Amino acid sequence: MELQVPDVPLLKIFSFLDAFSLLQASQVNRGWNRVAENDQLWRSLCLKKWSLCNFSGCLGSQTWKRLFLQQTKLEHRMAAVKPEDFLFREYCLCFLPGILGPMAYLSGCGHTVGAQEKSVLCTVSSKHKLYAWDVQEGTMIWSSPVQQSSIMRLATLPQMHLAFTVDLEGTVKVWNCQDEDALATLTMPWTCFSLEICLTNDGPFLMVGNAEGDIYTLTVPELRGVSKVNAFKYSVDLLHCSPDKKWIFASGTHQNILPVVFLTESLLKPSEGKSPLSLSIPFSSCCRACWAPRRTSRITVMYRRGSCKKTGFTTFELMAKRMGDRTDMQGRLSRQIATFLLPLHMESPIWMGVGDGNTVVFESGPSLFLFTISGHLLQRFEDHQRTIGNLWVDPVHVLTTSTDDSLHLYMWDEEGRYPHLKSCCHLEHVGNDPANNIGVDSRYPCFL
User: Fold this and answer.
1) What range does the domain containing 406 cover?
2) Which terms are listed as keywords in the entry (predicted)?
């Protein structure tokens, strides 16, 4: 090639490439190969693809490129396995009856990178207890004492192996899921309806929304107050931190409430006498919302409207301008990216999640559905016999639990125009003896 592009602009150009294109570019000539080997390019690809994983201590002496290629090869090997390639055994004490409470990964995120970190799942039961489970072994490894009131919300911070709960009486607790007692306890003045953890450059913070429309920001793990903001006249039912930690989405399910997006920085470092920087989303009757994990300013909301409570999904993009040392929250909404309504005959979903920003997953009765954000049906799963009572979605997995105390695990597969789900593992109640009440359905490869 006659034209020699300087390294700096070439590095910028390469930063927009996916892994396959970057490997192709490295074969053009020696100059391009040298730039394409840049560790920062491959680090960005690792963090983008496995955003929930903790890479500390797992890189060692190898390069980010080598780590990316090793992990991708491992994923392809796992995706190619067949049920007969696995050994199956009954899981003891895996999921006790009453699994219909919240659930979240405590460590591993079910996705090991480098070091062999255990995948630990937290669940809340109707028995007013918090449990931690070793996913690979299928065993309960810790349980909290019985709480005085029902646990309403659960959040986890895998990077610090911490779980956060709030009960019906407004008591917030921090657990390390090892000791019997909570690390910290704080009783809020009102009932709390939402809980969100936000890990920033200044450390982790816990956001709590209550019945009076207030949002409290607390330090972790001490639960000391940082700020209090009155967002609505009604309860704060939804709190979601964007993947890049720049935004906090807040909303109530009341039909007169318009969701608000706060600049996270303004909640963590409040200015005396000034309201936090925020913008409103002109869309009422919101009942769920999810940020796209890899499109950090894209959010999809689920809503119900009309006398027959039609359920629909709408996707927005958020924008803000940086003006010197501050952010200008003219942060206008771009055009509405996509929207669609569910058929009237379909049972209204309660839970939802998003894939790459172009797909939405939700439950309806005993079925799990995957749609594009424009309303095209991609997949339907019927792995549960009874109604799905809870749904967990992250960039790696989808977990569902049903009223018959069964759990099903799916994994995202990004090959093709749209990502799709692969059914991986099914755990179900097989008897009345709580010491031996879960079996693995051998139709599916067990999650290891």
Assistant:
1) 287-319+332-432+439-447
2) Ubl conjugation pathway
Give the torsion sign (CA, 149, 150, 153, 156). Answer: positive
Helices (H) and strands (E) in the chain, counts: 6, 31
Question: CA-CA distance, 246 to 262, in Å (whole number)?
Answer: 9
What is the phi/psi pair of residue 357, to 5°? Answer: 105, -15
For 10, phi and psi rounded to 5 degrees?
A: -65, -40
- What single-letter amino acid sits at 33? N
- 49, part of any domain: yes
Element (H, E) at 23: helix 19-25
Q: What is the CATH number of the domain that holds 20?
A: 1.20.1280.50
Cα-Cα end-to-end distance for the chain: 48
Tell me if residue 250 falls in helix, strand or coil.
Answer: strand
Sheet holding 184-187, edge to edge: 151-157, 162-167, 171-175, 184-187
Cβ-proximal residues to 189 (8 Å cutoff; 6+ apart), any chain: 170, 210
Cβ 403 vs Cβ 100: under 8 Å = yes
Three-class SS state of 258: coil
The answer to pTM > 0.85 is no
pLDDT digits (tens), the chain, 448 positions: 556 788 889 999 999 998 889 999 988 888 899 999 998 899 888 877 775 455 554 556 678 888 888 877 766 665 554 444 443 333 333 344 444 467 676 765 544 444 445 778 888 887 889 999 887 676 889 999 999 998 989 999 988 889 999 999 999 999 999 999 999 999 998 889 999 999 888 889 999 999 999 999 999 999 999 999 988 888 999 999 998 888 899 998 887 788 989 989 888 887 777 788 888 888 888 999 999 887 878 999 999 877 667 899 999 988 655 444 454 554 455 568 899 999 988 999 999 999 888 999 999 999 999 999 999 999 999 988 889 988 888 877 888 988 777 888 898 887 777 788 988 877 765 554 443 333 333 333 233 2
Closest CA to 379 of 364, 365, 361, 394: 361
Peptide bond preceding 221 in cis form (omega within 30 of 0): yes
Residue 364: inside a domain, yes or no? Answer: yes
- Read off the CATH number of the domain in which 407 is found: 2.130.10.10
Residue 99 lies in a domain: no
| Count: domains in the chain | 2
